[in-house]
Amino acid sequence: QVQLAESGGGLVQAGGSLRLSCAASGSDISNIAMGWYRQVPGKQREPVAGITGDSTTGYADVVKGRFTISRDNAKGMVYLEMNDLKPEDTGVYYCYTASSSGIPTGWGQGTQVTVSS
Question: Which secondary-structure segment (H or E) carries 96?
């Protein structure tokens, strides 16, 4: 069982940048797909970005060109670089692990991102 811990959230002005980190422990993540979801109160959790074990990436249309997901398997880390942030990017960002079919199998506790206009 992989344990996940996110960090790096905070308050930033529109147009600013943040880098989220997800520390994985308890198991080797080299062959595990991982990624980020976000959730706004009153709405469903939505996918933001994902990355396979061999670093193939995918992004939600609303963040393409602004967000970059990466991983360091040796350190057990997954990152989300977020640039040109918009108020609508505000939410709790959750790191997750996924099955081979892409279904989330585990979650971190989340980190709050707030973008002010």
Answer: strand 91-98
Q: Are 87 and 113 in contact (CB under 8 A)?
A: no
Average pLDDT over residues 17-31: 95
Partnered with residue 39 across adjacent β-strands are 92
User: In a 10 Å sphere around its CB, with 0-12 CB exposed, 13-18 middle and 19+ buried, how is residue 95 labelled?
Assistant: buried
What helix, strand, coil percent values describe the chain, rounded to 5?
Answer: 5, 55, 45
Strand, helix or coil for residue 33: strand
Distance, CA of 38 to CA of 76 (rounded, Å): 21
- Cα dihedral 23/24/29/33 (nearest 10): -80
Amino acid identity of residue 50, one-letter, is: G
Q: Identify the pLDDT of residue 101.
A: 85
| Residue 38 in this model has a pLDDT that exceeds 90 | yes
Taking only the tens place, the pLDDT of each residue in 60-98 is 999 999 999 999 999 999 999 999 999 999 999 999 999
